[in-house]
Write a structure and sequence with these properties.
Blueprint (H helix, E strand, L loop, with lengths): L9 H11 L89 E4 L2 E4 H7 L1 H5 L7 H29 L2 H21 L4 H9 L5 H22 L7 H10 L5 E2 L2 E10 L15 H23 L4 H8 L13 E2 L6 H9 L9 E3 L2 E2 L5 E3 L2 E11 L2 E2 L2 H31 L6 H15 L7
Antiparallel strand pairs: 1-2, 3-10, 4-5, 4-9, 6-9, 7-8
Helix pairs in contact: 2-13, 4-7, 4-13, 5-7, 8-12, 9-10
């Protein structure tokens, strides 16, 4: 492994701290207000052109010259390093500060890509949802490493694409991107109660500024727009391809039968068992409770047979009160735990109601009661018959699927070409620093029971 090492002094620590504060965002940063953007101008190139690479002098951003010492050598960004390695678990004590003239081997916390710097904090921010969801068990470290590896690879890929897109997009297309970013910012402010100050406060909790957030959105929209402009004209989908996909994926176009049902439910747990019985009622208590529940559902059934309104009877007798307003959910087969009730619902015609359906008491393998059972009267409120979507109706969906597959494949080859020609430094130490910081931040010590 090629390791980036430098002899670090207190002066270099100051420089590294400044670089660590940079933030360049995530091209795949996704917000609820994001929507697909479309090119505002026809591309001035074809997808098959061999585009020239950026000049070598544009690959890195030179550091500013010190006016007090114009002959000083500018630091190489690819060798800037900070913070000592962090142990796999948070350390109790802090490192001693560097003394003047002291040397120490440290790892990189910035990764230079096309003149921009990716920081550890940016990768952690982009991955925070996945990292915070990891369970702190024996596989915690390996899961963290997998997430960070993917995040770094994705970020490098997006930086390479954004660099070329920034050179190739027209002025009109860039203005379109800026318009989209402005719309997204207005949506974010509106969601924060219409207060820009409140949005700034919320972002500060994640270590972000509005400007950094805008750059993340700009990068993401630019990359997506550029990919569509570059590759969509080269995508070809024939009717034969559509039909072949349809025949191979028949199950994907089969719509299951679904039923929306109304229930009058009288369960043994609806006050028929003694309150202090726990999970171990006697056979006599169970028999008495079941008889009382049967009597109650019998009264409801009698009223329905006499012509009473189903909803009115349900309000009076059912423990599951009827929903008022809105649409009842449609359930496919296999959705309900009470299989006998589900079978009854799927056997009914639209608007038809069932006889009294009795469900039994259910115990688990250990002998504990998991369901006391009860009595139900089921009515089929709505029925959606199962069918298979025709090829004609499915063509648009299939075309979108095939277009996405081709776009992904072209984008992957394009990214591989960019990676081979770009000057990407070794990432091992940067990843290691990020992994250690993620472990320190997201590891939760096991709680004692």
């Amino acid at each position: 492994m090629n390791t980036m090492r430098i002899i670090t002094t207190v002066v270099m620590g100051t420089l590294a701290a400044g670089l660590g504060g940079c933030s360049w965002g995530d091209a795949r940063f996704d917000w609820p207000w994001s929507r697909q953007s479309t090119p505002v101008a026809k591309p001035e190139w074809s997808s098959n052109e061999a585009w020239p690479e950026r000049p070598a002098d544009q690959l890195t951003t030179p550091a500013p010259i010190d006016p007090n010492n114009p002959t000083a050598v500018r630091p190489n960004p690819s060798k800037v390093t900070t913070v000592p390695p962090i142990s796999t678990r948070p350390a109790a004590a802090q490192e001693e500060p560097l003394k003047i003239g002291e040397t120490r081997e440290i790892t990189t916390s910035v990764l230079p890509i096309k003149g921009k710097f990716i920081t550890v904090q940016e990768i952690l921010h982009e991955s925070k949802d996945r990292l915070s969801a990891i369970e702190s068990d024996g596989r915690f470290d390996s899961r963290v490493r997998d997430i960070i590896n993917r995040a770094v690879a994705r970020r490098i890929n997006n930086e390479l694409i954004f660099s070329e897109a920034d050179d190739r997009l027209s002025k009109g297309q860039k203005e379109h991107v800026n318009t989209q970013v402005a719309e997204l910012l207005r949506g974010l402010i509106a969601d924060a109660g219409g207060s820009k100050a409140r949005l700034e406060k919320l972002l500060a909790e994640d270590g972000l500024t509005i400007q950094e957030l805008q750059e993340e959105h700009r990068r993401g929209i630019t990359v997506r727009l550029y990919q569509r402009i570059k590759f969509l004209p080269a995508i070809s989908i024939t009717r034969q391809m559509l039909l072949g996909y349809y025949n191979k994926h028949q199950d994907d176009f089969r719509v299951e039968k679904k039923v929306a049902m109304q229930l009058i439910a009288v369960q043994l747990t609806d006050g028929f068992l003694p309150k202090d019985v726990g999970n171990d009622p006697t056979p006599q208590e169970l028999a008495k409770a079941r008889a009382a529940a049967r009597e109650r559902i019998g009264k409801a059934d009698k009223l329905l047979k006499s012509g009473e309104d189903y909803t009115a009877v349900a309000k009076e007798f059912s423990s599951i009160k009827p929903k008022t307003g809105g649409k009842l959910p449609l359930w496919p087969e296999g959705s309900l735990r009470q299989k006998k009730v589900e079978e009854t619902a799927f056997s009914l015609k639209l608007g038809q109601r069932s006889k009294v359906v009795e469900t039994p008491l259910v115990k688990d393998k250990a002998g504990d009661i998991v369901n006391y059972g009860g009595f139900y009267i089921v009515k089929a409120y709505e029925i959606q018959e199962g069918k298979t979507t025709s090829f004609e109706d499915a063509q648009e969906k299939i075309e979108n699927i095939l277009r996405t597959k081709q776009l992904d494949a072209m984008s992957m080859k394009f990214s591989e070409r960019l990676s081979k020609t770009a000057r990407i430094p070794q990432t091992e130490e940067f990843i290691e620093t990020t992994v250690n910081e993620a472990i320190k931040r997201y590891w939760k010590p096991p709680t004692r029971s």
